[in-house]
Amino acid sequence: MIHRLRARPPAGAFRFPEARHGRGELTYHDRIPVVRVAGTPEDVGEQLGALSVRPAPRLLDYPEDLLRDRFKSRLLARVLVRRAARVGGRLLAQFPDAPRRELEAMIATGLDRDRLVLGNTLYDLKNITLPQVLGCSSLIVPAARSATGAPVFGRNVDFYGLGYLHEYSLVTVRQRTPTALAYATIGFPGTVGCFSGMNEAGLALASHEVFGVPGPRRYNPCGVPFTLVYRRVLEECTRAAEVAEFLRGLERTTSTLLALCDRDGGRALEVTPDHVLDHPQDGDAITCTNHYRSPELARKKPPRNFRTGERLLTLTGLAAARGTFTPADLTATLHAVHQGDLTVQTIIFEPAALAVHVGFGSPPTTARPPVRLELKPLWDVPA
Fold first, then answer.
1. What's the Cα-to-Cα distance from 319 to each of 169, 287, 355, rounded to whole Å?
2. Is residue 336 a contact partner of residue 312, using CB atoms and an 8 Å limit?
3. Which sign does the torsion angle of CA 108, 111, 113, 117 carry?
4. What are phi and psi of 324, to 5 degrees?
5. Res 3: pLDDT
């Protein structure tokens, strides 16, 4: 069993205020902030703006803070932010209808348009603007080797936290609509897309950054931002097997490695503007870090950034060595590949149980047991 901690946040640490706004509500489940939203895209955007973005103004500075930290120059960071805001702003035309309307409603609550647009498009520009700044690790264990009797899926989110990003993690829960399944995302305020999440059908996903893709198109300016593509996956797909064909039907901006798991098992896909390919695996467990392995896309030597090759070897070796995994074992395995201050979220999905174990707080988040959330009651999905 995962034991829940009730530790107080460090003195001075940010804490989302518990509040209601229209049909939206932000509450704490143990130490995990959860914002539930419902209604039209305009309703949802207003709720998110009021409950999670406006209380966290410092987070809107994160893109510029990140670039200043990486390049050690305030002037260069501002130049890059202006450039990224212009390029990212052009992607608004490719936003699907609902998230675009949500973003506009969020801005209408009194938030800065350029910074919100940049926060939702910056990582699509990584192969043309950003230094290589992000890592992540995932492990999916099949039902035959899971102590729960069903697949389990764990992932670390590794971002440069700059000493404060980890304080702003939250779970966003969206109710079912006539055109979309109910789903939950684990991320940060102001993001209308999805880096990590699971829907009411039990389909879970996690995106991984991959830099320096081969081929002529490292960036597709006519594509849909990848977090919005993965939001659509949660809104419309119910099985991991459906996702590759679904992605091939969409224009995509950039390169990612997508880990997927449903009630029956997992899959990983190598996604670029021109490819959707299976990510080769060693053994029955699925492991992902931040490089491609397919013959079409793999480099002759795996990149060394953020120890992506070393982390993959470690995960693959630990997955092969252990017989059966509990969710706690999955957290311990992810702890073996944590990246210190970079590891700002740890997430364990149980797709069959519609539950997620969420690790927030001071990095590395693998160092403490996560909190288990039952998602079905949060979605108001009938039993």
1. 28, 8, 22
2. no
3. negative
4. -120, 145
5. 29
Q: What is the pLDDT of residue 382?
A: 52
Let me know: does 204 contact 357? Beta carbons within 8 Å.
Answer: no
How far is Cα 260 from Cα 80, in angstroms, rounded to an integer?
A: 33
pLDDT exceeding 70 applies to what percent of the chain?
A: 94
First to last CA, the chain: 23
- Would you say the pTM of this structure is higher than 0.85? yes
H-assigned helices in the chain: 41-48, 62-71, 74-90, 97-107, 113-121, 226-236, 243-248, 308-321, 327-335, 375-379
Among 322, 323, 343, 321, CA closest to 334:
343
Mean pLDDT of the chain: 92
Q: What percent of the chain has pLDDT over 90?
A: 79
Q: What is the pLDDT of residues 179-223, one digit of tens each?
A: 999 999 999 999 999 999 999 999 999 999 998 777 768 899 999
Write the CB contacts of 382 (distance below 8 Å, at least 6 apart in sequence).
none
Measured from the Cβ of residue 318, the count of other Cβ atoms closer than 10 Å reads 19
Q: What whole-number distance in Å separates Cα of residue 90 and Cα of residue 83?
A: 11
CA–CA–CA angle 242, 288, 153 (5° rounding) = 65
User: What pLDDT was estimated at residue 1?
Assistant: 28
Edge-to-edge strand order for the sheet containing 170-174?
A: 19-21, 24-29, 32-37, 170-174, 183-187, 196-199, 204-209, 256-261, 266-271, 276-278
For residue 347, the SS3 value is strand
Q: From CA 358, how far away is CA 355, in angstroms rounded? A: 10
Question: Does the pLDDT at position 309 exceed 60?
Answer: yes
Residue 329 in tokens? 């074992």
What is the rounded CA–CA span in Å between residue 359 and residue 344?
A: 8
Phi–psi pair at 374, nearest 5 degrees: -85, 120
DSSP 199-221: ETTS-EEEEEE--S-SSS-S--T
